[in-house]
Design a protein that fits this description.
This protein has six helices and five strands; from the N terminus they run αββαβββαααα. It is of the alpha+beta class and about 170 residues long. The chain has one domain: Enolase-like, domain 1 (2-Layer Sandwich). A hairpin with a 2-residue loop joins strand 1 and strand 2.
């Protein structure tokens, strides 16, 4: 069964397409993977459900060991005045940098990673997670799609990052 063939994909289909402007390649495990800007995911959730705290929210807890911090995230969203959710989704991050100093951003990094994984279960950036960003033709299609109407197949209004950078540089 493909997306769009049943009403069960109503969130997935709105959130599956990724604007390439919010991605970047990074090397890992001997190949190049695609990473997604986490704030673009927050923007997408806001476009889908409304402001954080009102239309969607997350709850997180941390567990610390001598070397690591574990973040557990529960994601919730409102649909027709009913809250839905799932989780916890977990992630772990080292508390110390390679030079031995404390990484004071470790909890934030673990939370961000858990949110990204959790958002993927709703369908956010599904094209990246399904490996479609390994295909240059697909990326070109997404660039065209997002440059044409700003929101691809979705009802989510995506802000053009190039325009944001230009506006910021003009100030």
């Amino acid at each position: 069964m493909r997306t769009g063939e049943t009403k069960n994909y109503y969130i997935w289909d709105k959130a599956k397409a990724t604007d390439p402007a919010w991605t970047k390649p990074f090397p890992k495990f001997g190949k190049t993977l695609t990473t997604i800007d986490p704030m673009s995911q927050v923007m997408c959730m806001t476009g889908l459900f409304g402001p954080v705290g009102k239309g969607w929210r997350f709850k997180n807890t941390y567990t610390y060991t001598d070397q690591n911090v574990f973040a557990e995230v529960i994601i919730q969203w409102k649909d027709n005045d009913t809250w839905y959710g799932y989780g916890p989704i977990s992630s772990v991050c080292a508390l110390y940098k390679k030079n031995g100093s404390l990484d004071d951003e470790a909890p934030k990094k673990a939370t961000t990673d858990a949110l990204t994984k959790g958002f993927s279960y709703l369908g956010l950036n599904a094209d990246v997670f399904l490996g479609m960003f390994d295909n240059n033709k697909y990326i070109s299609e997404m660039k065209t799609k997002f440059s044409t109407n700003g929101s691809a197949e979705s009802n989510v209004k995506i802000i053009d990052p190039a325009k944001l950078r230009k506006d910021k540089d003009d100030k």
